[in-house]
Amino acid sequence: MRIYRNIKFETQPIMLASWPGMGNVGIISTDYLRSKINAEVLAEIDMSPYFVPESIVVENGLAELPELPRSVIYYTHNPDMLIFESNAQIAGKEGISIVKKLVQFAEMYNVRRIFTAAAFAQDVSHSSSPQILGAFNTEEMIEEFKLMGVDPMKTGYIAGLNGLMLGVAANYDIEAGCFLGTIPSFAANLAYPKASLEIIKLMEKVFGIEVDTSELEKSIELVDAQFSQIEQKIRELYPDAMEDEDDDDNEPWKIGTPASEDVQEDEVPRYIMDKIEQLFDEVKKDRSKAPVLKKELDRWKLYELYEHRFLGLFK
Fold this sequence. Notes:
The protein is α/β, with parallel strands linked by helices. The chain has two domains: 6-210, 3-Layer(aba) Sandwich (Rossmann fold); 258-312, no CATH class. It has helices at 25-36, 92-108, 139-146, 161-171, 193-207, 214-237, 270-285, 290-299, 303-312, and strands at 2-3, 14-18, 40-44, 57-59, 62-64, 71-77, 80-86, 113-122, 132-136, 151-152, 175-184. Helix 1 packs across helix 5 (193-207), helix 2 crosses helix 4 (161-171) and helix 7 runs antiparallel to helix 8 (290-299). The longest helix has 24 residues, at 214-237. The radius of gyration is 21 Å and the shape is globular. 32% of the residues are buried.
């Protein structure tokens, strides 16, 4: 850890931390908020012991190792806050080591709470207003944030360090929570600032600040047209993917539901195939996620095709 300044807080600060994830919802909201409150650099984690390159960067035939990711801690006295941003998710023991180092740093400044932000993919249209769900490491925080309109996340998991932070913080007796903005399933691998905006609105209440969100709102307007085109294409290819908006039951858009019982691999949307590949990678690292992968394969009638590969994960 490289500490660049010697600072003191008059009150117990709150820490906001984020890493890249689905829709980059967390990192967009954190970075935008940091820039608008003019937070300054306080410290940086040396990432060289934790980062192992898995590829090289090639430009005009010249190959080079990729740059080391950065993990920077910022601070502000109005309000008293620490903000951590990293541009890379580090898995395994190295990832846990980074989170522990960050929590220990928070202890040095008597941080009372740590918040992270992430996305929660749902089978909904992008025209739907994002909701904010919450996961917390104390029952008291669940009840507190219910009063602020944050519904507790019922079931599931939060992949990566945005989620692991809650468990590690609990081991140090620090309250922690993760705010999850809902996004359409097809947007998991795309930047989705619409959910980030809703998280920033919540952070304004939590931190007692006001943030000029006009720039973020403009970027949402720009990408909205792109998401509309993607959605329209899915409607054309899979007309049964969306319920009739005039139906009495008002069911949400069922993205991810196959249109027929005899789905072939070449009939499955590309974003679903990408999602399945991502799940295979996740199960290689954590077998407890296998039921999620199996459910997705069954839903698209692809288990028989992938059976040998699926069972091979457990050899």
